[in-house]
Amino acid sequence: MALVAAIMVLVANGALAMSSVWQNNRVFIVFADTSDPQVEAQTSALLAHRDEIADRDMVAIAVIGDDVKTIYGEAPAGMDANALRARYQVEAGSSFTALLIGKDGGVKWREQRPADPGELFALIDTMPMRRQEMKQSSGG
Questions:
Q1: Does domain 2-137 sit in CATH 3.40.30.10?
Q2: Which is it for the CA torsion 88, 91, 93, 94, positive or negative?
Q3: Residue 98: C-alpha distances to residues 1, 47, 80, 138 (Å)
Q4: DUF4174 domain location, by residue (predicted)?
Q5: CA angle 9, 92, 104 (to 5 degrees)
């Protein structure tokens, strides 16, 4: 019972940290085992498109083993790997999983492969909040 309570606290703490990110950002999360080479490929692919990521208000993080690392943007301190795994139903030691979380906190994309940045940007550009942002930035 104490273990269940401890897990619930971790999930709540991770959720609070993530909620502050969602309010202003779309969050891309990579989950992987410590030895997965797809993490480096995903990181390189994303960082090759810094301007597009910034334009879409994105933060990218990687949950590698027990560590949470920032790939791009400013993720809040104190995010817990186990809490993130629990929230997004990704088991420790499972294969590579990538998620895109919208500004509303909902999962918009989930795959067990690295994301093509162009595919992510195209998906984001169809989202109602993004369309509103584009309209406002063009003066319309």
A1: yes
A2: negative
A3: 31, 16, 17, 31
A4: 22-133
A5: 60
